[in-house]
Amino acid sequence: MRCLRVGQRRALAVLFLLLVTAAGLAAPSVVRAATAPEPAPVAAPEPFGAACRTSVQGSHVTGYCYNPYPGLDLVQLHTDCAMWWDLDADAAPVAVAPGQTVRLTDRCWKDVRAVWVTHQKAS
């Protein structure tokens, strides 16, 4: 067996590198990304809650609630009276069916400080 000269060894090394590089480029590369499975889509909550508006005229409070959604809504009128001796009032819950409007009324003896309506899903 004959010994190769330095120039020949370099030429063989370069040829070997070229062949390995060409083989690497020609081979199909399959790269799989390590991903978690897609999460199940979260269902959007069903719309709920009657649209309510309130008005205060002197010591009288009136509220109107309209339910545009398919679920039954229990609305309750709350009245906060201004005077310390005037009792605050929480009306009984009233069911508002889909497409229905209800009228809620209450009053204080003197002045009204605040009025609000709460909603509850019917079971």
Write structural notes for this entry.
This protein has 123 residues and is α+β, with helices and mostly antiparallel strands. The chain has one helix and seven strands; from the N terminus they run H-E-E-E-E-E-E-E. It has one helix at 6-26, and strands at residues 51-57, 60-66, 73-81, 89-90, 94-96, 101-107, 112-121. The strands form two sheets. Strands 3, 4, 5 and 7 form a four-stranded antiparallel sheet that branches. The model has no long low-confidence stretch (mean pLDDT 84).
| Overall spatial form | rod-shaped
Q: If you compute it from the alpha carbons, what radius of gyration comes out, rounded to the nearest whole angstrom?
A: 39 Å
Backbone structural class: alpha+beta
Low-confidence stretches: none
Give the ordered list of helices and strands.
HEEEEEEE
Number of strands: 7
Distance between the termini: 95 Å
Number of helices: 1
Mean pLDDT: 84
Query: In this structure, how is the largest beta sheet organized?
Result: 4 strands, antiparallel
The share of residues in extended strands comes to 35-45%
- Helix fraction, binned, reads 10-25%
